Each structure stands twice: as structure tokens, then as C-alpha cells.
Amino acid sequence: MKNGFLKVAAATPKIRVADPAYNAGAVCQVLDECFAQKAKIAVLPELCLTGFTCNDLFLQERLLDEAVEALKKVIAYTGGHDSLVFVGLPFEKEGKLYNVAAVIHSGKLLAFVPKRNIPNYAEFYEVRHFTTGNEAVEYVEFEGEQVPFGSRILFESSAIKGLSVGCEICEDVWVADPPSTSHAKAGATVIVNLSASNETVGKDDYRRSLLSATSARLIAGYIYTSAGEGESTQDLVFSGHNMIFENGSLLAEAKRFSNDVVISELDIHRLRHERRRMSTFPVEGRSDYLRIPFALRKESTELTRQFAPMPFVPSDVRQREKRCEDILSIQAYGLKKRYEHTHCKSAVIGVSGGLDSTLALLIAARAYDMLGLDRSGILSVTMPCFGTTSRTYDNACKLALALGTTLKEVNIKDAVNIHFRDIGQDSEKHDVTYENGQARERTQVLMDLANQTGGMVIGTGDMSELALGWATYNGDHMSMYGVNVGVPKTLVRHLVKYYADTCEDKELSAVLLDVLDTPVSPELLPPVDGVISQKTEDLVGPYELHDFFLYYMLRCGFSPEKVYRIALASFDGIYEKETIQKWLKTFYRRFFSQQFKRSCLPDGPKVGSVAVSPRGDLRMPSDACMAAWQKELDEI
Questions:
Q1: Cα atoms in the Cβ-side hemisphere of radius 13 Å centred on 396
Q2: Which of 124, 339, 460, 470 could connect to 356 by a Cys-Cys bridge, CB 3.0–4.6 Å?
Q3: Catalytic residue numbers, as ranges
Q4: pLDDT single digits (tens) 501-527
């Protein structure tokens, strides 16, 4: 349970219809697997101690008595096991029959949670047998003890801060106002659903989308277990479609018709972070809920779930292509609106032959097309200086011409040397002044050209550079509209590649592919034998690591130790732990120390769920102390 991870299981036993004694053994058998995997919550299907398809046999007292005896066996079997278990059965109370979840922990029955919504349509006619469960908590006698009975019950453990579990049964989640909504508003971070949802063509897709949306809307973990093999196939077939969701994301799913036990880890701390972040998430300190504590041993949870090593880039090709098209459209539309408002006559872009300026130029071209303007109004400015190589220079020129823009060359060597003379900078001293002097001169040139042409300087810097502060203050840091400010470096590459693959222009595509093959560099230091000598990732670290750190720190609220832990798993075999540790510390140091650059960013469009705009997602003081984070980094 370290870092807020909670291992959970959704399991479907192979049962016999109307044979509770046999089914108790089948339940215990699948619980063995859950316990062996150290699942702290185990959820079994609706009415699984009798079978969902008993029909009028539910009215037989003999079946009901046997179901109670089966429950006793399961309760006893859980003794000494550190797991909260949910198992379904029919239960009689005051002459009425209820479809309930028995909630068990370590040999003790904690409560009965009844089904609230009893379907009576299509293939379902449960109203024939079952009564609507009560919300308000009552008490029933079971084995000489008074046991809570009602739907407004939450099961809570202090082993993980914020762990609170609510329960609903099958149809409950399909209705307009499901019990899970009330549970979440009362504080539940995990919802379990004991179900017996039969299979029809396409129902699995609908079920999956319903549960994904429910877990996203509630910002909760959702454990769904359904009836499977062993149920009667007289009229219906059940597939054991078990699933585990977290805030809309599917973590684990059983192969249908397999009776698989699915295991994953819910991140309770992540859910709490999301709820803190979402100011519209309702919190009601409801007094009508019974909160039942249960103990869990605190121990490290072995992770089986995957964390995407490139969280900004979908692994699925079709999703990735759609995302690229969406982002290009967002960027271009943002620039289009700015041009319509300002009535600028030109777009001025410094083109270096690198990835970021290439993407910015592509966006400008698309925006001009949307406006119905001639691309010759785009002024592509190449500004060679001490570090410029022939490869990047040639690519910058080819790109500008292939897109039909106006190419202008301004060699800034003399201007920079005069500036160095004026301030007493030794041109042989290749320090930060040497580098930044060039960057600021380039920005001055662009700004003045924008004034000359009645235009606007389009910024090229990306979000990864801004997160690290890898930008010259009032140099490439500044523009009149930054089209790339919401795009991380790992995604920039895919956007350019997507454009190359879809532009249907062989000449343009060839240039774009060569840009992609060029090392990332600001080219502010002289080349060695005509080859780039200053490689950004050698200096600040691999961008795929920094984008990983950025996403899970900023979007998910993970602590340094937690980011480090999942990075080790995600980059196993790619980076040594010492390498990850080194660049993680670099990331945090730079992220905190460079906020002053982000605090005065030019306008630019947000494109994803992570952004660093001081007017949007990141309202961070420029002089924030990182001592609390440093303390944890020192322990890694």
C-alpha cells in the first residue's frame, strides 16, 4: 500500500445453479487466488452463492437456508486473511427477499448491502422475487449478532489515507441516479459492483463505456465483477466480464467466457489528488451514512499495472494520429484567431532547422490556409551564427521554401561580436553570456522585423523546455504568441512525423524526416568538424524522462519517491536507476528554480491536460521553496 496503491481483485467462480454448498467451495477457491495475489479488496458476482439464474427457486426456503450456510463457510474461510470481501446471495428480512452483498473481513461479517434498483424489463424480472433495498441503515440478526443492513454504508481503513469503499449491485449502475453517486459524494474513493450482466451482441462495449464514464465522473476506482460459467444457459449466457477502472481508465479486464480473476492496483492518492484539483467535485459530510472501519496491514504493494513511459503520446497508432490531428488543429486555430483579432500583415518565425521551429512554421502555414491568406506573408527568418551547421541551415531554408513562405537570412555574427565588444565579453569564453547573447540577438531581430512588416513574432519554444527553464530569458523565451507552449517535446516529434506522413509532398516530407533525424540542439556553441557539438539531452537529460516526470508530478500529483518508483518500472532495461535518479533530481531543481520564466509567458494555446501557463493550470510562486520535495529526493 506504499504510495497509496491498493491491490484489488474481481473474481468469478465457476458455480452450480441452486447448489450453495458447492458454490461456497468455488468461492473459497477463487478467493485463494485473490489472497495469494495479496488483494486487499476481492469482489465476487451478484447472487453467486446460489447462482443468479435460480428464478422461482429463490422462493424456496431450502435454497435460502443453504445460502446462509454457504455464507457462514465463506466467512470462516476468510479468517486471518487481510482482505475486504464482497460476495452475493439472496437474504430474507422480515418476510421479504433481498439481493444483497455480504461484506466480510478476516472472518467477520461487517454488513449486508442490498440492491437498490430491481429491474423488471426485457429479460429481467427480478421484481418477481426481490424487494427494493433500503438506503437507511437498519440491523438484522445473523449468528446472534446485529449486522448493519442498508445501501448507505461505507467501509473505511486508515491504512491508506482516503480509502473508503461503497457498494452497488448490477442494475444500480445502469440507472439515472446510481447509489455510487451518493457514495462518492459522501467520500467513497472506491466503488464495487457485484453484477450478473448477461451477454448480447455489443453489450460488452456499452458496459465498458458505462463503467469507464462512471469511474471518471465520480473520480473513483471501480471494481466490477459479473456472473460467468456455471449459470444456467436456458435463455441467457453470462461471460464473467470482470473489469477494474480508475478515474475513467481501464486498468484490467477479463477475457470474456474465461472465468479469469483480474488483479490490479488502484491509486487512492491519485484519486484524492484529482478530487482536490477538481473544485466542482461535490463533498457532502453526510450523517446518514454508516462508516464501518476495517483494518489492513500496511505493506508495500507489488505493482502489476503499467505506467506509460511516454504519457503524452498514445501507444495506439490510430489514437496517436487522431491526437496529432487534434493538436495541430488547436494550435492553428489559436493562431488564426489571434491574426483575425490583430489584423497582422505577416507572421515572423525564426527557423533553425530544429524540431520546435519546424512545428511552429507548419502551424503558421496551416493557420494561413484557414484564413485564406497567401503563405508568402509568413516571414521565415534564418539567423546563422557561431553554432549553426550546414545541415540545420539547409533544412531551415528548404522547409521555408517548400511551404511557400518568404525566406529571409540575417547573419547575426557581426552584431553579436559588436555586442560582446561593447559589454567586454571575451568571444573565446563560451559561457552562458556567450550563448544567451546570441539567443537575445535573434529575438531582437525577429521583433524588429515584425515591426517592419506589421507582423507578429510566433514563438517556437515547447512545454518541456519551459518546465526545465531551458530557454533564454527575453530571448527564445519571448514572442507575441507561442504556438508550442502546450506541447511537450516527446509529442513535438510525433506531430512533425505525422505531418511528414500525411502532407502528400515528397520534397517537404523529406525535409521533415531529416529534421526529425537531427539531434536536438540550440546550436549556440561552435560545431566540431561541421557537426553539432551541443546536444541538449546531454546537458539537461533525456526529454522522454523529463516529460514522464512532468506528467506524473504535475498532472497526477505524485511525490518524487513515487515518480521514481514508477519510472524504474516503466524504463526498466532502458535507463539505469542511477540515470533516472540523476535526471529526476535535475528536473525538480530546474522546475522550481525556473518558475520566474513561466510566470511571464506570452499567450499560447493549451492542447492537453498538462500546461504551465501562469494564467491557466500552473499558478505557482516564482520563489517557492522546494525543501519538502528535496527532503524526499535526498532519500531516493
A1: 24
A2: 460
A3: 46, 115, 170
A4: 999 999 999 999 999 999 887 777 888
